[in-house]
């Protein structure tokens, strides 16, 4: 059974304790933890809080930036990622999400080689902690500085090149759901999936992420969900909503709307 979760980016202004209490109250089984909130609240306190609210950690976001696009040397980014692996292990997170980093004026072959080398080193460290890694493709319209890996095919190519069994993929429907090829790729992608995130948007991303409430946009989340289930995906499903189109909606309303949408999409009946 797929764990239904919500990313802390969806309630960005709330703190860890408020997030956990609200997610549990709205019937979510899991939480996608955002590392800055974890740092603010503290690892040990977070572990106690999760036990109190019975929330599973579906993801930890994020590690990466191995191309230097965020100003850090590669070694610093790798060391930070290994630190994130330890956090993920302590949280018993389903996966640690990894972002490649932007091209940063490198030629593509150099950026690709740098990424693969970093991922192999981190995968080896993660294996010893029992942590799964998942590379996330980011739409180029809102994430050139975050990742030069922009679609499912590019992510699969990197995963297969690194060739380590604990490196998989995060599929976020906001980033890849507007690609007409996504549905055709899904059966091949499912064996590599560690996490599926659901988002929606009224148009292709331009500049910054601008997600809308689920069902208000143009992403075929129902078709994607059905294809995932038909293809045997049984991993966690996480909702991520952030952007101008949801900023004026109260967080409790966002959570309730997301839960109702997901219940309808999955055919779930709640008592």
UniProtKB/TrEMBL annotation:
Domain Xylose isomerase-like TIM barrel: 21-254
Protein name, as recorded: Inosose isomerase
SUPFAM superfamilies the record matches: Xylose isomerase-like
Keyword Isomerase included in the entry's annotation: yes
EC number: 5.3.99.-
Tagged with keyword Nucleotidyltransferase: no
This protein's UniProt keywords: Isomerase
Domain of life, per lineage: Bacteria
Pfam family, one: AP_endonuc_2
GO-annotated molecular function: isomerase activity
